[in-house]
Amino acid sequence: MLATHRRQTLRRMKAEELVLIIQDTTDLNFSTRAGCTGLGQIGTNQTGAKSRGLRLHSAFAVNESGLPLGVLRLQGYAPESAKDKDPHRPIEEKDSYRWLETAQDAANVAELLPDTRIISVADREGDMFELFDLRRRQPGAKADLLVRAKHDRGLEGTDEKLFTELAAAPVAKTMSLPIPRQREHLGKPSKPGRPGLAARLAEVEVRYKAVTILAPQTPQLRHRLPLQLWAVYVVEPNPPAGASAVEWLLLTTVPVASAKQALQCIQWYCRRWRIEEWHRVMKSACKILESKPLRGGAAPGHRAGCGDCLADHVAGDSGPGNAGATRRRTVQSRRNRSDRAAHSEKNALDR
pTM of the entire structure? Predict the structure, then answer.
């Protein structure tokens, strides 16, 4: 089902000069479905009780104006606790590897559609040195990256860290930035709540600068060469009462040498909210959380079009002792399927 939809999405993308492929993860909470099997812990509720369900990682394509073009990729999985795992294990054995797989898929799409500029967009969860390093090592056509920074990284040629360096850059532009409605979040034992706020316009300052990011000092990455990127810093100096100040630091492979180019990156990042809207539609309008469990009690993630992904999870569940080997086999299996699908998609687009 998803393969057919993906081919139609690619056809729509082919007619565009520029396409944003937005990736993000949402939780599917099945805590109230006692009969569901194969679930993982996705968080805790207001009382501290554990919530169980699946996570769904999506790649959603929109054009430059934000018009949805379709879904390119869905990956459903039951999160595993990293409590007793080696923090320095290969990234292929981590849940976060899904961000690299989706970025690689964006590069594959860029090769399929040479006349369409592809930009892969991610929020702070996608801020990984490995993601940018993957693009640097990719041969042939590449998708650009636009990622909101989470980590205050070290820089080459200065003792200052990333956020301090950008905060000291001159203001290139001031602008009014539309901020969507902020939904109320109830507090948890480990995290305070957040009040609901109406949509508003934030008056922000924009700075930009070319930066060279140093590799993290981990056993796997400390020998990697620094990354040359561009950074766009957006900050709201005077937020209204009760609102959190806007502060975005965007890292990108797109050259930013002017205020106009910095504003373009900000506008592209604002389109990221489209994937959050789509996730809400799946839950509220499509009601995927209310579907009946699959045969054997598996969670109804197939309503979101992720049956293949859930099949990977169920078929590969060999117990915690073999988790690393299982994940490596699953990754290789997905790569093989991706290679076959790319060949089929190219033939379909050429027809």
Answer: 0.81
